[in-house]
Specification:
Strand order of the largest sheet: 3-2-1-4-5-6-10
CATH class of the largest domain: Alpha Beta
Helix content: 25-40%
Number of strands: 12
CATH topology of the largest domain: Rossmann fold
Number of helices: 11
CATH superfamily of the largest domain: NAD(P)-binding Rossmann-like Domain
Largest sheet: 7 strands, parallel
Strand content: 15-25%
CATH architecture of the largest domain: 3-Layer(aba) Sandwich
Bound molecules: nicotinamide-adenine-dinucleotide
Structural class: alpha/beta
């Protein structure tokens, strides 16, 4: 099989590509991968093998219809990760989010239609559902996104579903909870806090820290995407959860422990505008239909992630200090 992976130089897309090339997904031992990535501030060529016989890297924009129509022929499937992904940045300025997440997805799907790509997985987020005080969202829940990021992802989900319904495009949509793991950009909560603490700097905790997120290791997310790619039904949405519900305060306490720091390193900052209180997914459908179950216990995954950042300062120092000026001041990075 020949796959095109958009956003494959980002956090989650690169994990998917590295795992696939390492033989981690059944049936893909011989698959060839083309990564299409614009290499925005969030994309990093170093997240992928410098050279691999089954990997081709193309720097380009999913909004570029001509590029896509030239590139897609010969590909059997597309896994679509490319997006502007940081909530805080979307609060500062939403234009790029609408252009890439909505316009880029539509351009990509049009190109898939025009070139006859047989299978697409559109990677989305639980943030499209809004905030839930108790219980958990099923895939039928109404979309009530609260941030411009989440709204742009919700719009892209609806475009994807409409292309299935209108044109019969074979696209499935995944909605995952907060991811963590190695190679995540240090603007997001866990790597930001971890790298600040490793550098002896304070960490900015939003509000009272009681916001609840469900945390899933990136490896579990990517395995679920591989299952959806192989067996997901056209036009269907699959929640990917089953991680661990934690308050931001608890995450902060665990990161203090894992880095040997104390509570004096926590700096309370004004809450994010429109900050969702709680996210929780019901992932019964993907469990029952595709046999998905997360494998990495949160405490183990978190310790492994902190160890990875401790062991790879070269990677994050280049990323973090290269983008310091352009990052929002009080960045938390709930999820995406
Ligand atoms: P990321 O920001 O780390 O990576 C995004 C990648 O997309 C980068 O490599 C970037 O260069 C590329 N990109 C951006 N605009 C592009 C464009 N116009 N054309 C081509 N490439 C472009 O994001 P991530 O955390 O890896 O998230 C990947 C996907 O998963 C996103 O669609 C996101 O909404 C979704 N998601 C993320 C999380 C999370 O916790 N991080 C959770 C659920 C869903």
């Amino acid at each position: 099989m020949r796959l095109l992976v958009t956003g494959g130089a980002g956090f989650i897309g690169s994990h998917f590509v590295r795992t696939l090339l390492d033989g981690g997904y059944e049936g893909h031992e011989q698959s060839r991968v083309t990564v299409l990535d614009k290499l925005t501030y969030a994309g990093n060529r170093d997240n992928l093998p410098a050279s691999h016989p089954r990997l081709e890297f193309v720097r380009g924009d999913i909004c570029d219809a001509e590029l896509l129509r030239g590139l897609l022929p010969g590909h059997d499937a597309v896994v679509h990760f490319a997006a502007e992904s940081h909530v805080d940045r979307s609060v500062d300025s939403a234009a790029e989010f609408v252009a890439t997440n909505v316009g880029g997805t539509q351009t990509l799907l049009d190109a898939c239609l025009a070139t006859g790509v047989g299978r697409i997985v559109h990677v989305s987020t639980d943030e499209v559902y809004g905030s839930i005080a108790e219980g958990a969202w099923t895939e039928e829940w109404p979309l009530l996104p609260n941030s411009p990021y989440a709204a742009s992802k919700a719009a892209s989900d609806l475009i994807a579903r409409a292309y299935w319904r209108t044109h019969g495009l074979n696209v499935s949509i995944t909605r995952c909870s907060n991811n963590y793991g190695p190679y995540q950009h240090p603007e997001k909560l866990i790597p930001l806090f971890t790298t600040n603490l490793l550098e002896g700097r304070t960490v900015p905790l939003y509000g009272d820290g009681r916001n609840v997120r469900e945390w899933l290791h990136v490896d579990d997310h990517c395995r679920a995407i591989a299952l959806v790619l192989a067996g997901g039904r056209p036009g269907e949405i699959y929640n990917i959860g089953g991680g661990n519900e934690q308050t931001n305060r608890h995450i902060t306490e665990r990161l203090l422990e894992l880095t040997g720091a104390d509570a004096s390193m926590v700096r309370r900052v004004a809450d994010r505008k429109g900050h969702d209180l709680r996210y929780a997914l019901d992932e019964t459908k993907i469990r029952e239909e595709l046999g998905y179950a997360p494998r990495i216990p949160f405490e183990q995954g978190l310790a492994g992630t902190v160890a990875w950042y401790r062991d790879n300062p070269g990677w994050w120092k280049a990323v973090k200090h290269g983008t310091e000026e352009s990052r929002p001041q009080h960045t938390e990075g709930n999820a995406s």
